[in-house]
């Protein structure tokens, strides 16, 4: 892969000494799927267009990047009001952009917080304004309207525009990073044939009346998978040795997802109580919700958000953060849908409220070679957060290096942005003594057939990692001696438990055949890793007495607070026993071995930073106060 050239110069005016063309391309505005889309002919000039035109911060992205780095180093942060006073796009610039759009025949419906303009009009007006030809296309089973090439803006306003979305009507969605072994809208229960701590149940027979012998796996007797780790178990594993009194008190952790579970507080409180933790106190768990929620589901697009499928993601995130930081406040910010523009809006609410100091995001797009048009708008949000002392963490994905799904190794976005912390996954053996074994999460599945284990899925799932093709390798990685093979940003930065085989027990109200009911199940994915890390970071923020802003420069300069994951002290895999119907034993059980770190991908575990686990998993050393 070749690293895409930096686009900052395009939005800061670098190179202005050269003769400038009358118009400039808008970054990432050419549909990434054009090479395999079918052009069905020009769209009707009278067809409708609805777009957002995103504006660069005052001074450009380069100035905002420098401010974010400086603030994170000095811990001298701006309030939201101070940020807006310094970095909001100037009113005169907004006026110039509005005049350009209106002059082409488009209607500017409003300006959202000096961040973007809402614009509507006809295809003919959009073609004139953006210098494009909008056509009808079919691609990937979709029927859409899109430009045949990059959009442009006049040289007089081009430096003020970092993104435009909506010219391409392809629904751009993000997905949760949860690995739940059933359709997300259906109820699920784990079979109660499992280990209460890692390895405390090593069977020799199947859990059937006749006690059929259980075959060994490559000559070894493997244990049953854990039933699901609870808050006390996870804190014992990761936070043992932390300073007394560190529980997240006084810190607010923000969580973003799409939609909002109607039973979240009741579920989280019951789960905490049942597993030995305290429920939320009044006002400890709050929500910031949009005015309305929307489903993404139309005749022209099979893509849909499935609101109920996001409820499990929110449940995991809330319960995982509470497990690691029981006294921290949690504020949940819901996106109106799973479209990335709606998730981007949650960051505006977080940054402008200025309540949270660490944000966990357990979702993302698949592969970063396919660039979202909102790439620089996202980065602006991360940088605003950093200037205000807010840290952003993202799950790196559950498809390993993405080669099995996309044909070539790729990292996932937004985790690959250099201004967020990408949290990868491990397979983790936790006993009363703490973590006794840990390796990278990359799973091959073996099924029981004719009295023997046979490989059934060579690559089932695994923590995301590798090297970005969107972003050049940042200075903090180069300074740490990490030199990626393609010159791109390396992932992950850190990692935490994520393997569904060694995952967390969560409690959620679900839809079962007899009706809605609360129950528990084990769950994993880097959706688990990110909130675990965010919860621990809340303790570090508590110890420091202030927000931290960008975390990666600190992590790469001194990673002594992280356990180097090398693959020692853990079995070849665990035995999973599941209900055939996912609910009860009425249809019997199904058996499988889920291996640890044996799937054939380009990722690997080793000493120091590695492409499966980064610097490893956080321990008590990470909780030491920052100066």
Automatic annotation (TrEMBL):
<keyword id="KW-0720">Serine protease</keyword>
<dbReference type="InterPro" id="IPR030400">
    <property type="entry name" value="Sedolisin_dom"/>
</dbReference>
<keyword id="KW-0732">Signal</keyword>
<dbReference type="Pfam" id="PF09286">
    <property type="entry name" value="Pro-kuma_activ"/>
</dbReference>
<dbReference type="InterPro" id="IPR015366">
    <property type="entry name" value="S53_propep"/>
</dbReference>
<feature type="domain" description="Peptidase S53">
    <location>
        <begin position="228"/>
        <end position="627"/>
    </location>
</feature>
<keyword id="KW-0645">Protease</keyword>
<dbReference type="InterPro" id="IPR050819">
    <property type="entry name" value="Tripeptidyl-peptidase_I"/>
</dbReference>
<dbReference type="GO" id="GO:0008240">
    <property type="term" value="F:tripeptidyl-peptidase activity"/>
</dbReference>
<feature type="signal peptide">
    <location>
        <begin position="1"/>
        <end position="19"/>
    </location>
</feature>
<keyword id="KW-0865">Zymogen</keyword>
<dbReference type="InterPro" id="IPR023828">
    <property type="entry name" value="Peptidase_S8_Ser-AS"/>
</dbReference>
<protein>
    <submittedName>
        <fullName>S8/S53 family peptidase</fullName>
    </submittedName>
</protein>
<keyword id="KW-0106">Calcium</keyword>
<dbReference type="GO" id="GO:0046872">
    <property type="term" value="F:metal ion binding"/>
</dbReference>
<keyword id="KW-0479">Metal-binding</keyword>
<keyword id="KW-0378">Hydrolase</keyword>
<dbReference type="GO" id="GO:0004252">
    <property type="term" value="F:serine-type endopeptidase activity"/>
</dbReference>
<dbReference type="InterPro" id="IPR036852">
    <property type="entry name" value="Peptidase_S8/S53_dom_sf"/>
</dbReference>
<dbReference type="GO" id="GO:0006508">
    <property type="term" value="P:proteolysis"/>
</dbReference>
């Amino acid at each position: 892969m070749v690293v895409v050239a930096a686009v900052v110069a395009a939005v800061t005016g670098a190179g202005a000494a050269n003769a400038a063309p009358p118009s400039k391309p808008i970054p990432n505005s050419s549909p990434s799927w054009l090479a395999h889309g079918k052009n069905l002919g020009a769209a009707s000039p009278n067809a409708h267009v609805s777009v957002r035109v995103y504006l660069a911060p005052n001074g450009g992205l380069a100035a905002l990047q420098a401010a974010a780095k400086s603030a994170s180093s000095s811990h001298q942060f701006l309030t939201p009001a101070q940020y807006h006073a310094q970095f909001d796009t100037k009113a005169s610039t907004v006026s110039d952009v509005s005049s350009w759009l209106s002059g082409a025949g488009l209607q500017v419906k409003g300006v959202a917080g000096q961040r973007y303009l809402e614009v509507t009009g006809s295809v003919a007006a959009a073609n004139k304004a953006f210098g494009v030809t909008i056509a009808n296309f079919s691609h990937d089973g979709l029927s859409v309207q899109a430009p045949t090439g990059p959009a442009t803006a006049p040289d007089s306003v081009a430096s003020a525009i970092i993104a435009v979305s909506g010219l391409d009507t392809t629904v751009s969605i993000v997905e949760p990073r949860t690995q739940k072994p059933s359709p997300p809208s259906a109820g699920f229960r784990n079979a109660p044939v499992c280990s209460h701590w890692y390895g405390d149940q090593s069977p020799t027979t199947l859990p059937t009346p006749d006690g059929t012998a259980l075959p060994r796996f490559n000559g070894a007797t493997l244990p049953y998978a854990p039933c699901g780790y609870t808050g006390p178990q996870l804190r014992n594993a990761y936070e043992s040795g932390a300073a007394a009194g560190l529980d997240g008190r006084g810190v607010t952790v923000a969580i973003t997802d799409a939609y909002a579970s109607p039973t979240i507080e009741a579920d989280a409180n019951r789960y905490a109580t049942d597993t030995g933790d305290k429920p939320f106190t009044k006002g400890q768990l709050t929500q910031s919700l949009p005015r309305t929620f929307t489903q993404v589901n139309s005749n022209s697009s099979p893509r849909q958000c499935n609101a109920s499928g996001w409820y499990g993601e929110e449940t995991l995130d809330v319960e995982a953060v509470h497990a690691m930081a029981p006294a921290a406040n949690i504020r949940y910010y819901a996106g109106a849908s799973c479209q990335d523009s709606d998730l981007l809006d949650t960051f505006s609410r977080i940054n402008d409220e200025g309540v949270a100091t660490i944000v966990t995001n357990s979702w993302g797009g698949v592969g970063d070679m396919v660039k979202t048009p909102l790439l620089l708008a996202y980065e602006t949000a991360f940088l605003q957060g950093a200037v205000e002392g807010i840290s952003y963490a993202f799950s790196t994905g559950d498809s390993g290096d993405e080669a099995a799904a996309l044909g070539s190794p790729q990292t996932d976005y937004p985790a690959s942005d250099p201004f967020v912390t990408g949290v990868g996954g491990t397979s983790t053996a936790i006993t009363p003594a703490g973590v006794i074994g840990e390796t990278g999460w990359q799973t091959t599945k073996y099924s029981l057939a004719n009295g023997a284990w046979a490989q059934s899925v060579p690559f089932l799932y695994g923590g995301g990692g590798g090297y970005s093709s969107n972003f050049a390798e940042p200075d903090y990685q180069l300074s740490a001696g990490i030199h990626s093979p393609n010159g791109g940003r390396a992932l992950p930065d850190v990692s935490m438990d994520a393997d569904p085989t060694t995952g967390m027990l969560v409690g959620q109200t679900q839809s079962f055949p007899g009706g809605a009911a609360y129950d528990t199940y084990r769950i994993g994915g880097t959706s688990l890793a990110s909130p675990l890390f965010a919860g621990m970071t809340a303790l570090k923020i508590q110890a420091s007495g202030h927000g931290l802003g960008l975390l990666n420069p600190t992590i790469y300069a001194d990673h002594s607070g992280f356990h180097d994951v090398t693959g020692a002290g853990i079995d070849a895999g665990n035995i999973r026993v599941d209900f055939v119907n996912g609910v009860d034993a009425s249809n019997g059980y199904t058996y499988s071995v889920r291996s640890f770190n044996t799937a054939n991908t380009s990722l690997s575990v080793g000493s120091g930073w590695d492409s499966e686990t980064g610097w490893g998993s956080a321990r008590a050393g990470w909780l030491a106060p920052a100066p």
